[in-house]
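Sample entry (112 residues):
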Amino acid sequence: MITMQPMPPLPIEQVTELWQKDSNAEAFLSALRGNGFGKVDCIRALRQMSDISLREAKEIVHCSAVWADRRAADDDFHEAAYQALLQDGWVEEEVDEPAKFAISKSLTAHRS
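Predicted structure, serialized as tokens:
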């Protein structure tokens, strides 16, 4: 059985300082990544500072220029995860690309 560990808290002072320097999403994500934040941490920080939904934050981070180097690999991972779910009967029919991304992302959320 896999036990999910709680995520460590974000260093709120550092996140707030970076947000106050430039609240533009791309600049903020660039500053976070430059300070060693991972993709999941960027999503969490963006949500915390901008009061947007989890889905919006995921889309902004995934489609950002800052994380463009990971986009193709992440898309491939989500497509493979979706196909495995489809094959194993967890998903019953083909859906459009945004829905595939949401399904595989929600079921594989522990990967960062």
